[in-house]
Design goal:
alpha+beta, 5-stranded antiparallel beta sheet, 14 helices, 50% helix, 15% strand, elongated
Length: 392
Amino acid sequence: MKVSIQLAQNIVESMKSIIKQDINFIDTDCVIIASTDPKRVGTFHAGAKTVVEKNQMLIVSPEDSYEGTRPGINVPVHVNGEMIAVIGITGDPQQVTIYGNILRKMTEILVLEDEVSALRQREVDRSRMLLEDLIFYPENFKERWEENTLENWRSEDDYKRIVSIRPTGNYFAFFKDLRRHLEMKFETLAAQSLRKSVIWMEHEQQFVILYKSKIESLINGCLEDCLNIAAQHDVFVTVAVGSKVHRNFKKSYKDALLVLENSQSGEDQTESTIIHYDDLTIELLFNTENTYRQELFCHKVLQNLSKKEIQEFHHILELFGEHNGSIVAIAGALFIHKNTLQYQLQKLKRLTGYDMRRYEDFMILRLAFSLYEKYNYEMITTEPDLDDDQVH
């Protein structure tokens, strides 16, 4: 096992802050690869050669003559039964000998921690690559991954979903805490033999999770925790749960993005929320890839209304749905006489051609008003231009 020069330098500097002596990190070829004394880096250390050969501590006194060696102690460092380096302390042997075992053990711990961190990072990178392939490059999936991975994620025996977690505002600290939380939660799946039921990544300022439906309850708990973590950081977050699929992960991902598009987000967001694609109805039509047709429909229905009239009639329509068309209840909510309300409905019919009291017309008006509110079409009285790529 080879220790990187950067890690070795970090180790000797950390040790010196405790022991207050110059420290050398020597590889098994007996070359100093890191030191708190920069002049010694890259030099041969004969005392380390003796340590490697005998696999035991070497105390170097002022009377000893080892090439490239100064008085002090040198101890072997082992990881998983393998000698990986020699660590040396420069100083009076009688004073620094007591640090030998402490220095060795601390070095071994730091190297192991770095190895665990590297393994965890490799797992994170693997999950990201796997999830990106599943969502964006499904045609290359067979070429990149082994058969058991293919069977695990392309099987028809369980539904899967994509979740997108997107925060607004200053979310750096939130990302850090959520990342740690997800790592801990998903690590527990290993003990339950469920590690292969979820993968996740950070992608374009959001967390993306793919999971199998059999761990839905655990995922739901994680998503609730996400809202709590966001609250601790004064961040608003939208958690979008995509459609359930067997293997069409790109569809589930796009459906999660559709949820994000139709949720309150950005500077206007006032609360964190979890929204499921399954709960969308009329919002399924609100797709940014189809805004021209939406604007055209909106223009067709609302072109004769002023901005103020659109706001007033939209409010009446919302109350109409809330009170199941009861004229008395709607008039009461508006604090107007029912005859005044009847006049308003007649006016809407005259200007648009649609009667809110007819079920079919109500649905058309609801869609038009909802589109207007969603995209805030300022020039609704002007028919939208038709671009060349929209002719077809």
